[in-house]
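Quick bug: MBL fold metallo-hydrolase output formatted oddly.
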Amino acid sequence: MPTLNVIDSGSSGNCYHIKRTNMHIFVDIGISRYRVDSVLEENDSQKDKILLFLTHEHNDHISGIIPFLNRYKPIVFASEGTADVLKKKGINVSDFYILNKDRIYDFEDISVHPFQIMHDGAEPLGYHFTFDDRAITFATDLGHAPAYIEEYLAMSDIGVLESNYEEELLKNGNYPAYLKKRILSSKGHLSNKEALNIAAKLSGNRIKKLLFAHVSEENNDYGILEKYSNFATKNFGFETIFLRQNRIYGIDF
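Here's what came back:
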């Protein structure tokens, strides 16, 4: 049975790890390499395949990439736009596999469906993975969610969906006006209520667990998120969990 390890999720760092037999799939590496060591033992890196899928180039998603590449020698997948930005940062991207949105890629026994996310990166992607009769979707860092993202989530056993801010906390908070405008824009981030509305549309589908992710430490509140998560779990027919920053979660699926 595969396990999803959320090594971190939030405004200061993001990294997800899917552990399978003889394979490790990472989505983003915006944390210290030493935190990766907590889920990836040394013998794993010697005998197992390690894959890294990058969503985009913002620092909270790629800050740990150089030590991770040097230590674990993963196979790396990214969009052309993301790879170009990393190249300008001095990272060797010559061996990266370049992915295009809306195509299906098969790598050994996994299928990967990259899709466009609406965010202010160079060419950001979300991912829908299928393997072992399981499916999981990562849709974070997006200002709004078109219908196809809802469809990917509905087809998944686990969905990872952004729930970045509580609108009133953001509007009344200390962020400068330009940053509030960016977050609220169609290429910014999803609010709690937007995430909850998407969750409601998933009711009656395959999904078993929905993770509210990429939670802002400045513009959100765990108490509010707990109420939303409890409401969704009670009313929508699947378990909903919100992810706290700096906490590891292990979820079998």
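Actually, after a second look the formatting is fine. Residues 70 and 228 are 41 Å apart (CA to CA). Closing.
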